Amino acid sequence: MTINRMFRITAWIFGTLALIVLVAFLWLRNSPYWAGITLFAESHRVENFRAMDRVFPYRDIARSGAVWKFDRAPRPLPATYDFAGAEHDLGAFLDRTETTGLLVVHQGAITHEDYRLGADETAPFTSWSMAKSVVSALIGIAIEEGHIDSLRDPIYRYVPALAGSGYAGVSIEDALTMSTGVAFDEDYDNPLSDINMLFIRAMAMGIPVEDTIAGLESIRAPGEFNAYVSSDTMALGLVLEAATGMPIAEYLSSRIWGPMGAEADATWSTDRTGREFALCCLNATLRDYARFGRLYLEGGARDDVQIVPADWVQASVTPEAAHLQPGDNPASDWTFGYGYKWWIPEDPQGDFTAIGVWGQYIYIDPARAVIIVKTSADPAFDDNDHETIAAFRAIARAVAGSE
Questions:
Q1: Of the candidates 380, 397, 373, 378, the residue with the CA atom closest to the CA atom of residue 113
Q2: Residue 271 in contact with residue 280, Cβ under 8 Å?
Q3: 1, 129, 326, 359 from 334: Cα distances, Å
Q4: How far is it, in rounded angstroms, from Cα 360 to Cα 344?
Q5: Which of 220, 304, 319, 390 is buried most, with the most CB atoms less than 10 Å from its CB?
């Protein structure tokens, strides 16, 4: 074989490979998987977080009935807040944490509403793990309606596929308080972590969620240690679906979204089997997140209509077990306390919050009748929760006139 012929063959091979790679890239670029691949990319995440219907399949959550209206009583935000022994500029903090929306409500009136980075009041911001607090409310309603007999029921009673898994000895209450003892790697930076593989298997490969979490193992007795495990909420989603006989989105629409007077339809992202991804991915407007927070501020009621049981609301934000208490706690992997999918900040002041990765919050201060909703695309979200609570507390004091 001559050198020229070898060169031509080599060039043909490399040219063919380059063409195959180009065609594959173009196919992927125009496929429904591209948005998922670029979900957290710096150049895409702000837009993706308010357009999750382009990233994943979804199920609709219909609003109905009269809207639960907010009054308007504009008040300025405080210029500064105190954190870690120093005074900080609030505007700079909102910029630094890539805030996309900030809504403040005091005594049923919107005092501040601000949208950033291309968003507006119609944007359906994704919740990330704030959805866990919504799942908790649905569990409380399902118990009240008799679909679930008891918090102490084992999860496998409703989801037999988990009978031989790490969830075999776990109760519904253990999962609500993230005290299951199940081993689960929540490291988003590790592409092979349990949380990332759960997304990949369900969202890309169409493997049923129960097949994945059935492979998880127990590393400690349930009910003794608080460790953040997102698969716990996936298990609760399976319980809700089995107990009520309804998709989670449909149950949410009929039991909360309609009765509380949401002003807009919402969506819940699903996996490739069509099941809501319960650990995250509710998509709604800031005002409707604030309405959900208002339910918890007002003991689960809208006016004179009880929507979430009042005793459930109270129990959800009042952790009693030692391993769920805020502060330095050897039986917890974080310094915030934990209720039924609600966080209790350090230095308890009666306030509580839903938290989602990348900086999503529904914060409630009952003593001051304040609700704050913040959505973000904050790459340093893991480092900013404590500072965010400091900022929220300063805002609540300012709008309530209790500086």
A1: 373
A2: no
A3: 68, 16, 8, 17
A4: 15
A5: 319
Token pair 């959800």: residue: 316
* 254, 65 Cβ separation under 8 angstroms: no
Cα 301 to Cα 267: distance, rounded to the nearest angstrom: 23
Question: Rounded mean pLDDT of the chain?
Answer: 92
DSSP code per residue over 168-212: TT-BHHHHHTT---B-----TTSTTSHHHHHHIIIIIS---HHHH
User: What angle is formed at CA 58 by the lines to CA 52 and CA 64, rounded to 5 degrees?
Assistant: 100
Q: Tokens 């031509």 map to which residue?
A: 8
Helix (H) or strand (E) holding 301, with range, is: strand 301-302
Question: Please, which contacts does 215-218 make with residues 24 or more away whose CB atoms are closer than 8 Å?
Answer: 215/165, 216/165, 216/166, 216/167, 216/182, 216/183, 216/184, 217/165, 217/166, 217/182, 217/183, 218/166, 218/167, 218/168, 218/169, 218/170, 218/180, 218/181, 218/182, 218/183
User: pLDDT tens for residues 312-350?
Assistant: 999 999 999 999 999 999 999 999 999 999 999 999 999
Rounded to 5 degrees, what are φ and ψ at 232? -60, -40
What is the tens place of the pLDDT at every residue in 108-162? Answer: 999 999 999 999 999 999 999 999 999 999 999 999 999 999 999 999 999 999 9
User: What are the C-alpha distances in Å from 223 to residues 88, 177, 178, 216, 359?
Assistant: 39, 8, 8, 17, 28
What distance in Å separates the CA atoms of residue 378 and residue 364, rounded to the nearest whole number? 21
Residue 301: strand pairing partners: 306
| Two structure tokens written together for 364 | 């409630």
Q: Which two tokens stand for residue 142?
A: 């399902």
Topology classification of domain 49-400: Beta-lactamase (3.40.710)
Dihedral sign (CA 121, 127, 133, 139)? positive
